[in-house]
Amino acid sequence: MESFSTIVVVLASILLIGAESSLAASHPNLEYGPGRLQALNVGEIQDRLVCRVSDFGARGDGIVYDTSAVQSTIDYCAERGGGVVHVPPGTYLTGTIYLKSNITLWVDEGATILGGSNQADFPAQSSRWYTILAEDAENVELTGGGIVAGQGLKFVVEFKEEKNIMVSWNVTGDCVGDECRPRLVGFINCKNVHVWNVFLEEPAYWCLHIVNSDIVSIHNVSIYGDFNSPNNDGIDIESSNNTMIENCHIDTGDDAICPKTEDGPLYNLTVTNCWIRTKSSAVKLGSGSQYDFRNLHFEHLTIVDSHRGLGIQLRDKGNVNNVTYANIKMSTRYYHPSWWGLAEPIYISACNRTPDTAVGSVTYVRYINITIISENGIFLSGLEKSFLKGMEFKNVNMTLVRSTSFPGGYHDYRPGCQGMVAHRMSGLFMEYVEDIWMQKVRVQWKGADVLDWGLPFDFTPSTVHDMHLVDFENTYVD
Ligand SMILES: *[C@@H]1O[C@H](CO)[C@@H](O)[C@H](O)[C@H]1NC(C)=O
Ligand SMILES: *[C@@H]1O[C@H](CO)[C@@H](O)[C@H](O)[C@H]1NC(C)=O
Ligand SMILES: *[C@@H]1O[C@H](CO)[C@@H](O)[C@H](O)[C@H]1NC(C)=O
Ligand SMILES: *[C@@H]1O[C@H](CO)[C@@H](O)[C@H](O)[C@H]1NC(C)=O
Ligand SMILES: *[C@@H]1O[C@H](CO)[C@@H](O)[C@H](O)[C@H]1NC(C)=O
Ligand SMILES: *[C@@H]1O[C@H](CO)[C@@H](O)[C@H](O)[C@H]1NC(C)=O
Ligand SMILES: *[C@@H]1O[C@H](CO)[C@@H](O)[C@H](O)[C@H]1NC(C)=O
Ligand SMILES: CC(=O)N[C@H]1CO[C@H](CO)[C@@H](O)[C@@H]1O
């Protein structure tokens, strides 16, 4: 904790060195300076051009669309080599806004970019349905202390406490089913992306989406999504390298941090110092897993009242290799079973999406210094041809205690696979795991509700090889 804060402070001060820009001069409280640009590799520019959306006719009244005014400001600024597009306080109703290379979109404190909720506000292809989209861009930044909001509640066709029913914009057939809604902010094929000090709220679908990008820094970002709406993920990182997520606060219905590999591998993801609450997984690799995931590091996370904690959900041929989870505190609980998950604090499920597809393996995964309070145990499930191999648990304390009245007694293999399977509860369930090390693992059972589960471990010996237990404790308390 201590050394991490130091790193952040040092980083912040490097970012803030430099001469005043004209934006900072007019807003002395804005933490903005051209020194930060060096982190974005935009060279030696000392004073950046500042373009104000108000000079291009944006009204910010939240009623009249400001799409073309904001877009003209960005285009004007981009044509002159880039600069800062300043969005002053006000509410700017817009359709899709396209960011360009070398542009900082500065949404001021008190300013909201409010995404439209009509299909006509977005381009034709559903893959470009975002309120803010940067595509094939370099050195792009979103910051300023303001809000980008998606009016997600307008996409609810029926409010239900267990899970809302959402609209589907599938009229063109470009996307089908209920996952056919706009995302909030997207970076596709980008390099040097910086998202910081901004509030991203009420997405209709996924919130912040990073696709096929390299060198992405996301910090001091607060994400809020409706707790009852499906698919409002926090941050989805797809097929991207060198992503850093720090100091974020994510409170949302669906998966909070969700790396995927649909179009290419994902290397070097670091997530530190984040607070997460979700009705789904706090961290979930997959299920889109066509390519490899490598070198992922999660540290100093606080996960509160989530349906799952640290998850890997492999359904395709990509492999997962070298993942560390360290210094994490979490509480997990049951929610309505229409949401995937059964309060598993640590969860790995590898199985093939369809009978004729392959599924990858999971190797070298470490869980170190983890404190858990949970309604269910750890779930590690591989397949005969897809072992989980090289797992380490070190200094893991897990208190099992019931806190809701949802029934237990199941394993959740969804999506696909065996679905929901009736199965007794245990501290640690394993199938097809090889080379597993546990050191200083303490399982504590609390209250009469959990006493009848019985076993700290549950596995078929023929599917588990090379298990090492050092200093394992299993205790029952009242
Ligand atoms: C962005 O800025 C850099 C550094 O000034 C410059 O080399 C590059 O051409 C700019 N990119 C665009 C698309 O303007
Ligand atoms: C839209 O999705 C619904 C629900 O999945 C389906 O019944 C309907 O046929 C779809 N319409 C189109 C045009 O794809
Ligand atoms: C990420 O790195 C891998 C391995 O070098 C490479 O194959 C892939 O194209 C890179 N992806 C991006 C988006 O840079
Ligand atoms: C991952 O990070 C390492 C260490 O910083 C670096 O050497 C490597 O090139 C990175 N991989 C990719 C694909 O960028
Ligand atoms: C594992 O990943 C970490 C970053 O999370 C990296 O520092 C380390 O070098 C990687 N180890 C191997 C063997 O690739
Ligand atoms: C686990 O509990 C032990 C004994 O109470 C304590 O010394 C240790 O610091 C705890 N570790 C974690 C990661 O919570
Ligand atoms: C785990 O906690 C111990 C004791 O607090 C500490 O010495 C060690 O560095 C931690 N491990 C990691 C990987 O952070
Ligand atoms: C979006 C967000 O979390 N912004 C915060 C960034 O950090 C400053 C200083 O700690 C806070 O005041 C902001 O609320």
Radius of gyration: 23 Å
Contiguous low-pLDDT stretches (5 residues minimum) are: 1-46
Structural class: mainly beta
Largest sheet: 19 strands, parallel
**What's the rounded overall pLDDT mean?**
90
CATH superfamily of the largest domain: Single-stranded right-handed beta-helix, Pectin lyase-like
Family: Belongs to the glycosyl hydrolase 28 family.
GO biological process, one term: carbohydrate metabolic process
GO molecular function, one term: polygalacturonase activity
Pfam families: Glyco_hydro_28
Which labels suit this protein?
19-stranded parallel beta sheet; Pectin_lyas_fold; 9% helix; single chain; Pectate Lyase C-like; mainly beta; 5 helices; glycosidase; GH28_Enzymes
Describe it.
This protein has 478 residues and is mainly beta. The chain folds into two domains: 1-266, 3 Solenoid (Pectate Lyase C-like), CATH 2.160.20; 280-478, no CATH class. 9% of the residues lie in helices and 49% in strands. It is built from five helices and 35 strands. It has helices at 2-16, 22-26, 35-39, 67-79, 448-451; strands spanning 49-52, 61-65, 83-87, 90-94, 97-99, 103-107, 111-115, 130-135, 138-143, 147-149, 156-158, 165-166, 183-188, 191-201, 208-211, 214-224, 235-238, 241-246, 249-252, 257-260, 266-278, 281-287, 293-306, 308-314, 320-332, 346-350, 362-374, 378-381, 388-400, 410-412, 420-422, 428-431, 433-446, 457-459, 464-477. It has a 19-stranded parallel beta sheet that branches. Strands 5-8-13-15-17-20 form a six-stranded parallel beta sheet. A hairpin with a 6-residue loop joins β11 (156-158) and β12 (165-166). It is elongated. It starts with a helix and ends with a strand. Mean pLDDT is 90; it is low at 1-46. Bound molecules: 2-acetamido-2-deoxy-beta-D-glucopyranose (8 copies). One 2-acetamido-2-deoxy-beta-D-glucopyranose binds at residues 197-199, 220-222, 249. The site of one 2-acetamido-2-deoxy-beta-D-glucopyranose (NAG) has 4 residues, from β23 and β25.
